[in-house]
User: Fold this.
Amino acid sequence: MIARDYNTQRKKMKLPEYGRSIHKMVDHIMQIENREERILAVKGVIDVMGMMYPYLRDINEFKHKLWDHIAIMSDFKLDIDYPYDPPKPETFIEKPKLVPYGQKEIKFRHYGKIMENYIAATAQLDDENPAKAVNIELLANQMKKTYLVWNKDAVEDSKILNDLTYLSHGSLKPNPDLRLQEVNEIFKQQVKKGRITPTTNQSRKHK
Assistant:
């Protein structure tokens, strides 16, 4: 009976993207006793690995990466003179550092923290500054667009303007007669950008 050779029974590859043939070459190089022959063989394997990424192989940083991959595939046991400092095994054992996440409270998550920052910055402008009125209108329209991305129902302009005043702690008081972009027009833009599907848009009823 012929013994079958299954991948599940083979040695686990350190870097599967290079395939088993490259790993076997590296294993063979580790058996070469002559140091000079070993380095020549490694350079040959490096050339083969580089051929897999011809558009990157002449970039110095990428060559460094290939030598690092040789060290990894040899389990850091290949005794050669590396042209670069090879990576240390401890580097791959260390636990990743925790990513610090902002703990600042967001009053309305559908508007987001960035919108709150923009509102705070606009509130610092002098009332005589013509940019302040322009920013208020832009902010209100953007808030309405964001609201409709995360909320299925239509929204009255008064709701958006009241939220803007609230988020600015009363510093920004838009004109109650300010007319924002129409809901249907906003939905058309969102469908075009792929934020909502046409089916979802059609299922919503607007006045």
Residues 14-92 form one domain. Confidence is low (pLDDT under 50) at residues 197-207. The two ends are 77 Å apart (CA to CA). The chain has two domains: 14-92, 112-203.
